[in-house]
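Input structure tokens:
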């Protein structure tokens, strides 16, 4: 029996085996049979039709390279990936479903078929069809997960504005009533403005895709003043930390001041969290014309092989500081580098002689973003 014929005559046995495996996935354990099977019957029809279609060697090569021609209609595999994303299974589990389906079909078929030359050809064509289905399913799965990530960020940014507005109003009432020292209310007001600016950045990340297509609001900026203002807020947020600024002269640059402060905040926060307790965090603003350098140095050590991977999103050191929050996502260095590269600069790290230093390098004049930003 040819494989195409087997897919048509023994569909129920194949679907039963597929749904039985799907139930072993925790997110699908309580799912009814109809939902478990969703578009699998149509997927089997598509594979069967593909096996019955004549295919040249060149077409086979193109398919193996992922260059199979795309049709106008959404495929069963694409819908399957979309629905599985909505059910909350992981991408590893999605691929495992296809792996189990492939194994079940071949095993059930080999129990009935005698292997000959045509069987080998069927197996090759079948594997190509399954691989194509996996690629289509994963693509739609990733798109659906990304869509919900963007929705989540949008809702988060929108909903946080309400509490911020309430805080700002309360601070203004306290200022007018004189119920708190003026310097305290002024500091709180600046903190609220920074949070509002960061929320604007969050929504911009959401619109453009995280870390990509970053829009800058450049202007003439004194980096020494901008860094001093940000460090004042960071000292208030980390009263036990010794955060020092080393900057003797004004340093002017055409940059997005809010973004630069965001990058500095991430680097200093990392230094406070991961540096040795009781040791100072030194922030240096220096002119290296035509590049400005903002360096953050703390006591500690990072092996050379671990430095560059820390710039990848959602990456943390294997042995994080016990003082690191459980909700820390490992995005600080990634964001700081993306901000610098959007300016045409970069962020580099170095470790030696008991210290760790990260440096933001920013062109002082307008420069095109780096291609890897």
């Amino acid at each position: 029996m040819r494989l195409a014929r087997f897919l048509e005559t023994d569909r129920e046995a194949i679907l039963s085996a597929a749904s039985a495996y799907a139930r072993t996935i925790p997110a699908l354990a309580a799912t009814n049979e109809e939902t478990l099977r969703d578009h699998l019957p149509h997927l089997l029809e598509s594979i069967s039709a593909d096996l019955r279609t004549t295919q040249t060697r060149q077409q086979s090569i193109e398919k193996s390279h992922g260059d199979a021609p795309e049709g106008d209609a959404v495929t069963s595999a694409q819908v399957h990936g979309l629905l599985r994303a909505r059910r909350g299974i992981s991408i590893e589990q999605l691929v495992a479903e296809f792996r189990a389906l492939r194994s079940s079909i071949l095993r059930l078929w080999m129990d009935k078929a005698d292997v000959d030359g045509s069987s080998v050809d069927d197996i090759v064509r079948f594997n190509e069809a399954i691989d194509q289905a996996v690629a289509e399913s994963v693509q739609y799965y990733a798109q659906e997960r990304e869509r919900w990530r963007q929705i989540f960020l949008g809702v988060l940014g929108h909903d946080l504005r309400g509490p911020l507005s309430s805080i700002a109003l309360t601070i203004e009432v306290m200022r007018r009533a004189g119920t708190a020292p003026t310097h305290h209310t002024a500091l709180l007001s600046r903190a609220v403005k920074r949070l509002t600016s960061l929320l604007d950045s969050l929504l911009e990340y959401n619109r453009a895709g995280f870390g990509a297509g970053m829009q800058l609001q450049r202007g003439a900026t004194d980096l020494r003043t901008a860094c001093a203002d940000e460090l004042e807020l960071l000292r208030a947020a980390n009263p036990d930390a010794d955060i020092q600024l080393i900057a003797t002269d004004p340093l002017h640059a055409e940059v997005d001041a809010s973004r630069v402060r965001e990058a500095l905040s991430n680097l200093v926060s990392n230094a406070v969290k991961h540096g040795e307790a009781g040791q100072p965090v030194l922030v240096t603003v220096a002119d290296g014309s035509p590049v400005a350098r903002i360096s953050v140095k703390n006591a500690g050590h990072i092996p050379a092989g671990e430095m560059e991977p820390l710039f990848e999103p959602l990456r943390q050191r294997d042995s994080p500081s016990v003082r690191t929050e459980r909700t820390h996502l490992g995005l600080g260095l990634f964001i700081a580098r993306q901000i610098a590269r959007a300016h045409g600069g970069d962020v580099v790290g170095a470790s030696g002689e008991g210290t760790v230093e990260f440096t933001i390098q920013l062109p002082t004049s307008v420069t095109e973003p780096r291609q890897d930003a």
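The two ends are 55 Å apart (CA to CA). The longest strand covers residues 291-299.
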